[in-house]
Amino acid sequence: MKNGFWGFAGLFLCLGLSACGRESALPAAPVATPAALEAHSQEFRREVIKVTDGVYVAVGYGIANSIMLEGDDGVIIVDVMETLESAQAVAAEFRKITPKPVRAFIYTHSHPDHIGGAPAFLVPGQEAPPVYAQADVARNMDKITTELQPIITRRAFRMYGNLLPREEMVNVGIGPELGLHEGSSIRILRPTQTFDDVMEDTVAGIHFQLVHAPGETEDQLFVWLPERKILLPGDNFYKAFPNLYTIRGTSYRDPKAWAASLDKMRALKPEYLVPSHTRPLAGAEYIYNTLTDYRDAIRFVYDQSIRLINQGLMPDEIAQRIQLPPHLAKSPFLQAFYGKPAWSAKSIFSGNLGWYDGNPSTLQPLPPDEQAKRMVELAGGEEALTRRIVEASQQGQHQWVLQLTDYALLVNPDNDRAKQARIAALKTLGEAEANPNARHYYLVSMRELRDGLKLPDRALTPKPEMLRDMPLSIFFDGMAVNLDAEASADTVIKVAFEFTDSPERYTYIVRRGVSEVVPQLLPEADIHVRVSAQIFKEMLARLRNSALTIAKDFEVVKGNKLEFVRFMRLFVPEES
């Protein structure tokens, strides 16, 4: 019986293979080209599209769309662009269609390109209407703007190519560009109507359902108008292979959950589909089939990645082998203009097994500088390695040039021949790349190396009114991730913060390189300061000079200002 069971199990596990342990070959998938990316720009022709009566979507005014639902005595705006400026352009077009006031906003998720311009849709003096969102949106918004802002900003500027010359930009895959520029401004209205799983409501005579639908973000929702069979899927669907992983950096995006969310959408049999990126679709059968292909592509990449993981393959090996089946690879909705199956496969590996790939040599590797030094020695010295780099460059081996120059420039950043070869490789790879995320990353990295381009550590300087809406707690979170562990290694101190315009109170404890924030005043605090919460926020956001602000605006109830200045210097972020 035992042998019979395992014999059956072994047979079951071998299903789908031409022979147990041997892969059945799939035809090579078509490869997107720069010319195809250029043609893809037609997807973002700037216009306001009437989807059906009372439903309008603004495409091409920024990286994301904004959607207007017209009701009896007002409108609902779904997603509000990345900046006030882009939102103002959209709002002006919407007002040409109807002067009805905004009765509600809906945020499909927390990404900045969907939440930055809400006030632009309001008439002067209008009180902010309800803002609907999934329960985790506010928390995720705050995390992006505090804890991870510097690194996400720099990587996003590389990925979206904001600082590239116009002639080097094509599009960003799901929109014409990310409209963040010097002088741009944002103003986020925080969610006021939140839910966990499902919410149903009627605003301006528009009956809608909001359904939690994890996918590109954990806080994603879709909007369903059941009487009219209209579906707004947020960022869980757009005309490009989905970003199951984004190279700007993100927490794990669960492909199984994403596919399950698409299954919920398919089951509704919508007759109109209005995404928050790319153009709307119409026709129940067409939408159903398109959504089916989309979820199938996601499940294929997930299932086959897990299958190869279980066979013991390493992330790069899996990435090389994951190709969509031909019927999916040829879909216009699954071209690699945003995500890539190979990137997704590696994310699935780390998302399920963590950073360790299972190879004992990578368990405790040599530090990068030591590894580079030994590789240079192995190559026969710096001059010999440089010759190999130059030869590889002349032979068009651009990826190999990048990998070799990782070693050469780590050992000697002033190696000009290696530097020039790396610059040439980045330029060539970028210009040949059809995926705009990869294209921009190569080209911006090239300009950082060649031109000394400096990337900012935040996309925009926040306005005081934006800071006013943000909770105090996230500013203390931001302090914690900026604590200099070395500078505070011998420090034990408690600083109490009292605010003149907020009932909130905090005591910040530094304990030998470690932070603890207590949401109350501790009587044993070494220093007790009193200040306006708004001034405190503006100081931390670098809208105010810290030294002058502490001297002028902080009242020291206990201790002295010099001690407090020394404390605050522990949180100065390092220059990148």
CATH class of the domain at 34-229 and 243-258: Alpha Beta
Name given to the CATH homologous superfamily of the domain at 34-229 and 243-258: Metallo-beta-lactamase domain
- The strands making up the biggest β-sheet line up spatially as 1-2-3-4-5-6-7
Overall pLDDT: 92
Name given to the CATH architecture of the domain at 34-229 and 243-258: 4-Layer Sandwich
Sheet having the most strands: 7 strands, mixed
What is the subunit arrangement here? Answer: single chain
Weakly predicted, low-confidence segments: 1-28
How many helices? The count is 20
What fraction strand?
Answer: 5-15%
Organism: Tepidimonas fonticaldi
EC number: 3.1.6.-
GO molecular function, one term: protein dimerization activity
Family: Belongs to the metallo-beta-lactamase superfamily. Type III sulfatase family.
Descriptive notes:
There is one protein chain. With 576 residues, the chain is of the alpha/beta class. Among the domains are: 34-229 and 243-258, Metallo-beta-lactamase, Chain A (4-Layer Sandwich); 366-432, Alkyl sulfatase, dimerisation domain (Serine Threonine Protein Phosphatase 5, Tetratricopeptide repeat, Alpha Horseshoe), CATH 1.25.40.880; 471-571, SCP2 sterol-binding domain (Nonspecific Lipid-transfer Protein, Chain A, 2-Layer Sandwich), CATH 3.30.1050.10. Helix content is 40%, strand content 15%. It has helices at residues 2-13, 34-40, 84-97, 137-145, 149-160, 255-267, 284-310, 315-321, 326-329, 341-353, 368-378, 382-394, 398-411, 416-432, 436-451, 464-469, 472-480, 533-540, 546-553, 561-568; strands at 47-52, 55-59, 66-70, 75-78, 102-106, 131-134, 193-195, 198-203, 206-212, 221-225, 230-232, 272-273, 281-282, 492-499, 505-511, 514-518, 527-531, 555-558. It has a 7-stranded mixed β-sheet, covered by helices on one side. A 6-stranded mixed β-sheet has the order 8-9-10-11-12-13, with helices on one face. It has a 5-stranded mixed β-sheet with strand order 16-15-14-17-18. A hairpin with an 8-residue loop joins strand 9 (206-212) and strand 10. Helix 11 (368-378) packs across helix 13 (398-411). The longest helix has 27 residues, at 284-310. The radius of gyration is 27 Å and the shape is globular.
